[in-house]
Amino acid sequence: xxxxxxxxxxxxxxxxxxxxxxxxxxxxxxxxxxxxxxxxxxxxxxxxxxxxxxxxxxxxxxxxxxxxxxxxxxxxxxxxxxxxxxxxxxxxxxxxxxxxxxxxxxxxxxxxxxxxxxxxxxxxxxxxxxxxxxxxxxxxxxxxxxxxxxxxxxxxxxxxxxxxxxxxxxxxxxxxxxxxxxxxxxxxxxxxxxxxxxxxxxxxxxxxxxxxxxxxxxxxxxxxxxxxxxxxxxxxxxxxxxxxxxxxxxxxxxxxxxxxxxxxxxxxxxxxxxxxxxxxxxxxxxxxxxxxxxxxxxxxxxxxxxxxxxxxxxxxxxxxxxxxxxxxxxxxxxxxxxxxxxxxxxxxxxxxxxxxxxxxxxxxxxxxxxxxxxxxxxxxxxxxxxxxxxxxxxx
Length: 395
Fold this sequence. Notes:
CATH class of the largest domain: Alpha Beta
Number of domains: 2
Strand content: 15-25%
Largest sheet: 6 strands, parallel
Helix content: 25-40%
CATH superfamily of the largest domain: Phosphoglycerate kinase, N-terminal domain
CATH architecture of the largest domain: 3-Layer(aba) Sandwich
Strand order of the largest sheet: 5-6-4-1-7-8
Shape: elongated
CATH topology of the largest domain: Rossmann fold
């Protein structure tokens, strides 16, 4: 068991908190502040326990100097101050004397947010490659490290693994603690039947998930573009739909290994072009030569929902159609609505688009849990250890 907030005395200590403020930002305007809101409980806990809070986060990918202005965390500091109801001291540095002076000037119950950790990536990707010197430097700025960024827990960065390996005390925050508890509840001794819904573009993205969850799930529903590789493996015609030719044999192996556990679409909403226009429903699992599969069809929605309604535990990761197009989001929204109206079921959703579907359709509070970490969720579902969690001190 990893140390949690309850295991450490934070009074008078400088506490480094790795948060996940990787929010959508256009012209300094935040369009979705859910990740900032998710970080509030841990920050508030630390303030209530007389800590000096120093926040670190990445935002976007920094590849060139022009990205520095585009991905500044300054708008995050402003929104965070509004949500906390207290001043957030923003320092537009990730090193140098200015940052150190600001941190050393903090008093108990004060908050400081330093600039985007990935600004260090302009120098040989020092953050993303877990530069040893950078991790040690950031660790020297505080007394305790709290990892509350589940979204990056599957990565070995200087701002998570680097700090944790160079500081005397470390623990996980409330968000990470809840994420681990919820995901483990879904895969360790879950209430049955367990139904897993997997969507998205590529089989290769979720090979490990399928392999691991075949041991856990009673049914694995596969939609989205990744279903076409499985359908091709069964010698269905998939038209011009996206397919991974090099994964067809693997799909055949999974279908044989699954012994009826894998459920695939039996019809599709298809289009001649990959554009947001009215589609045509196929009559069966085959897709005409000059068409692209864009969403699951009406019969498949009924089929999938019948299995979903029998479940006691549901794990959902990835849309079953081109969710970003209004003409092809019906399958994903139908699944979302069905899950939302179930009683006595534990439902967890992860992945950007499936989580967005739950939130945008107004059913956020109807799911047991919506995970904040797509990649981290997948690796946990694969049964893999998360590097940024493994390095945290044990109780």
